[in-house]
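Amino Acid Chain and Its Fold in Token Form
===========================================
Structure side: the spatial fold of the chain, written down as a series of whole-number tokens.
Position: the record begins directly beneath this header, with no further notes in between.
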Amino acid sequence: MSRLVVVSNRVADPRKTAAGGLAVALGEALAETGGLWFGTSGTVVDSGHGEGKLHTHRAGNVTLATVDLTQEDHDSYYRGYANGVLWPVFHYRLDLADFDAGHIEGYRRVNRMFAHRLRPLLQPDDVIWVHDYHLIPLAAELRAMGCQQRIGFFLHIPVPPPLILAAIPAHDWLMRALFAYDLVGVQSQADLTHLSRYLLSEAGAEAVGENTFGAFNRQLRTGAFPIGIDVDEFTALADGEEARAMIATLREQYAKRQLLAGVDRLDYSKGLPQRVRAFRTLLERYPENRHSATLIQVAAPSREDVHAYGDIRRELEGLCGAVNGDFGDIDWMPVRYIHRTVARKRVPGLYRSARVGLVTPLRDGMNLVAKEFVAVQDPADPGVLVLSRFAGAAEQLRDALLVNPYDTQATADAIQRALHMPLQERQMRHARLLEEIRRHDVHWWRRGFLAALTETSA
């Protein structure tokens, strides 16, 4: 059996619960082959140039190998290009992309350094799986060093239409780098359609088979592989001590309320201001929800040194304060806004206590919060998922209440419907959603991608 090598921006110890379902799923595959997980250490060195220090340690029979970044490389590769250009463009926000800062050289340099550090650790029959937008050119750098192994790439964020992609300076270089991979996977059929159209119209590729393209003397296979969650692992968290304590606390403090829950990173892609506006519209149009419905919105800090994130934080705090000021009372605060990270072991307790789960991003590759919410509901009395049609999860979770988050009034109407949905309909919808996320869980995703990669010719 070939050894699996996983490469990502950050590395997690798959033995630790806090690492999450993705790390657990990748850890299983790595453990089966005595694999290697390679990425940055998270340590930023104040000074120095060239390649970062390499660290290796064992996690069971898995090797974790990490490299440090200099401050200059972190600022250009991670903050500047990956999150200042690629993240906003791939989320359709050309207005927020910093095209003029010249960070692309740092992005290239760090990917080249990754390849140089990884190359000596590889074995001839390794299968290499590269993850996400930080490392798009990595396979091209490895090929330039003579690597002949099978290399697959999975993009966790959405793929925008071709003309939006083409707005990236040097987009042709970036997308040409994809042809160094044997397989490129994306989250949804919509993403696959956009990628295919780009390859044909902008990269000059030729369709040589179903979802297979030829260009630059290479053939590239593509496919949609929607990522899932580890349902059993997450439901076990819901039965843990910290989640049960959360449930008990919420039931005591909100015994007379119907809870709506949103758990997100504070990011402009998540549609948080639009969500609060929809909640305000709910209270205006359906006054019976006053003194009843309470929105608990967790917005975990995210890249707060970037100007756009400071703007959205101020906007969100202003909106929450206005709702509470205009509608709140001595014994009722309509919105509980929490700007910090809630421990993963406690989050299932919030989901299970909620009558409505709000997952309403303006654009998202998948959004696993939607699947986590479904996984931990009480089948006898489940909550209702209100889900943006612009989340990748919407392609699978058709029994959620799908909304356009830009349409404030329609979203408010959907929340009203969710709050007052009959028990039988809630049970039916939940049963179908749960069946879907169990069938297409994170293990199904991992097996499907690796099987497709193994079938390709290196």
Q: What stands out?
A: The chain has 16 helices and 16 strands. Residues 4-228+442-455 form a domain with the Rossmann fold fold (CATH 3.40.50.2000). The mean pLDDT is 94.
